[in-house]
Recover the amino acids of this structure.
């Protein structure tokens, strides 16, 4: 059946400004993300640097803004020096994090150059698993110090005259996780993170530092980890990370579709902890939340089936690891998670969809073959291209759905942004059965409207090298007296853009427009 829903937008209540960095991504030396992903020198579209042209074009189209690199779990055993200097001298190493062999054909220089060509700001992680402050400081000096020291001159000899000027640095990765190389208690990690942060700031006071929060909301140490780590570092860091992956419990797509309710709670709890610690320690410096790994990921399959096989196999180069094939349903969940991130723009300073190519990624490709967009590509691209300016948190009047995991949730989730005279509205329909005719008020003219749903209503539809079955399609919007009405099919994502009448802009609060 078709139901009705109303999204109420109060333009006078436009709030926080969305940081473009919320639309970040993540490239790890893992599986086929780098090798056979962005980098494949023998591919017909590869340029002189060995990076694939077809993948590069899809990355550009995605509209991501910042890229976290080079891990992930990988970074906790990584020696950055292995990846610089003449390729023929670079060592092959075991990567214990992913039971693979790392050739080091791609390192800081190649990756930074590539990131520049696709318009991505580089966000670099340092190894606090097997290494510590000294090696992190060396990497920072190598990357950001202009010249006249052994490390900065080594960079220049290696082909980069000007500093890389990397601004955002992650102090290790998921150090709360027993699976992490160099896993630590909160106190152990807090201490080493503080020492590293202090030393790095001595070298380059302009950097922004991200301290590692919990690996997920269900970690037994969640909460105490954040409080302890921030007690050590709150006066030294700019962001604390949140990692959040969601999957469908067998037979419970309704709860899966409500995953953003879980993310909302996770973000609110971390924000509360930040406030408590800052108040307790009298910290004036703001601390943002860096959701620097988030996505849909079938982790149960990875942990129970794929990982045991990978870790008892050999040490292959670029094995196929967690190449999840996403469905229309997954894309709608990704859309709802984006709505949660945008809605928390007052607290979320950065976020990185994990990962970019092949590994739980919006872009897939085959060696010597095609590159294609997974369904999850599209809501991300919509948000990255159109969520600009200030956030409007709407009132939602819609059917209430019962879920096993999150209780009662509205069938419609939505958020809007306003930038000069442009309003962008993002919405999902979580209902598995019912279309929704959705109305919202925004005095002005609709300039584009599209929805994304499964082909012929099949939420399990996927895309592949030969067929892009899940892609946005234009949808009709009925507009009358500034009220716009469109129909969202069951399990769908929508993006509508409106050019506002100048009279409507008078009611927008503040001076940011
Ligand atoms: O993104 C895949 C892995 O997930 C990352 O390496 C790790 O940080 C997280 O557990």
């Amino acid at each position: 059946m078709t139901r009705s829903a109303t999204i109420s937008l109060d333009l006078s209540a436009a709030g926080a400004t969305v940081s473009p960095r919320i639309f970040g991504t993540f490239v790890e030396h893992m599986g086929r993300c780098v090798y056979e992903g962005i980098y494949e020198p023998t591919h017909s579209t590869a340029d002189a640097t060995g990076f694939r042209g077809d993948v590069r074009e899809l990355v550009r189209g995605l509209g991501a803004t910042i890229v976290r690199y080079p891990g992930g779990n990988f970074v906790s055993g990584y020696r950055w020096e292995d990846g610089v200097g003449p390729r023929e001298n670079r060592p092959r190493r075991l990567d214990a994090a992913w039971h693979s062999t790392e050739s080091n054909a791609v390192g800081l220089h190649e990756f930074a150059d590539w990131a520049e060509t696709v318009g991505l700001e580089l966000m670099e992680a340092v190894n606090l698993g097997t290494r510590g402050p000294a090696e992190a400081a060396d990497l920072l000096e190598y990357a950001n110090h202009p010249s006249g020291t052994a490390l900065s001159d080594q960079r220049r000899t290696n082909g980069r005259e000007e500093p890389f000027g990397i601004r955002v640095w992650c102090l290790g990765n998921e150090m709360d996780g027993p699976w992490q190389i160099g896993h630590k208690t909160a106190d152990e990690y807090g201490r080493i993170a503080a020492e590293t942060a202090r030393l790095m700031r001595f070298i380059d006071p302009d950097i922004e530092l991200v301290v590692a929060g919990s690996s997920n909301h269900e970690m037994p140490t969640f909460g105490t980890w954040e409080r302890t780590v921030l007690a050590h570092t709150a006066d030294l860091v700019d962001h604390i990370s949140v990692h959040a992956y969601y999957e469908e419990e067998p037979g419970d797509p309704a709860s899966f579709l409500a995953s953003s309710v879980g993310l909302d709670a996770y973000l609110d709890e971390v924000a509360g902890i930040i406030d408590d610690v800052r108040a307790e320690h009298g910290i004036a410096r703001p601390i943002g939340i860096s959701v620097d790994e988030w996505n849909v990921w079938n982790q149960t399959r990875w942990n129970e089936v794929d990982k045991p096989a990978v870790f008892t196999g050999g040490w292959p180069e670029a094995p196929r690891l967690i190449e999840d094939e996403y469905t229309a349903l997954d894309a709608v969940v990704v859309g709802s998670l984006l709505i949660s991130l945008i809605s928390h723009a007052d607290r979320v300073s950065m976020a990185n969809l994990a990962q970019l190519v092949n590994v739980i990624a919006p872009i897939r490709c085959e060696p010597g073959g095609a590159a294609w967009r997974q369904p999850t590509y599209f809501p991300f691209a919509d948000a990255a291209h159109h969520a600009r300016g200030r956030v409007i948190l709407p009132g939602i009047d819609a059917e209430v759905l019962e879920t096993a995991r999150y209780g009662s949730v509205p069938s419609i989730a939505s958020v809007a942004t306003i930038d000069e005279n442009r309003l962008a509205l993002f919405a999902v329909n979580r209902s598995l059965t019912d279309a929704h005719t959705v109305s919202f008020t925004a005095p002005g003219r609709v300039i584009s409207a599209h929805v994304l749903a499964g082909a012929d209503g099949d939420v399990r539809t996927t895309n592949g090298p030969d067929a892009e079955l899940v892609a946005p399609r234009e949808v009709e919007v009925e507009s009358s007296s500034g009220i716009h009405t469109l129909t969202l099919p069951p399990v769908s994502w929508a993006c509508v853009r409106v050019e506002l009448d100048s009279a409507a802009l008078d009611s927008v609060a503040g001076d940011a427009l």
Notes: The chain has two domains: 2-11+390-505, 19-386.
